[in-house]
Write a structure and sequence with these properties.
Strand 2 and strand 3 form a beta hairpin. The strands form two sheets. The chain has a two-stranded antiparallel sheet with strand order 1-4. A two-stranded antiparallel sheet has the order 2-3. The longest helix has 10 residues. It has about 60 residues and is of the alpha+beta class. The protein is built from two helices and four strands, in the order βαββαβ.
């Protein structure tokens, strides 16, 4: 899976950080950072993070075959 966050939409609400803390976090300047290609084990929490994002800034795409 590949994660893309549209940083032009992201307003740093942090809901993704609460939903998938192993994938999303904030740096020292409160800018969102994330793992673009997390393990498949994180699929459920990443999907939840995308769902709870209030501005729908997170897109998840499957791995290419």
């Amino acid at each position: 899976m590949k994660i893309v966050v549209d940083m032009n939409l992201c307003e740093s609400h942090g809901q993704c950080v609460f939903a998938a803390p192993g994938v999303f976090s904030f740096d020292d300047e409160d800018t969102l950072v994330y793992e673009a290609n997390p393990d498949d084990a994180a699929r459920e929490t990443v999907a939840r993070a995308a769902t709870v994002c209030p501005v729908r800034a997170i897109t998840i795409t499957p791995d290419a075959p």
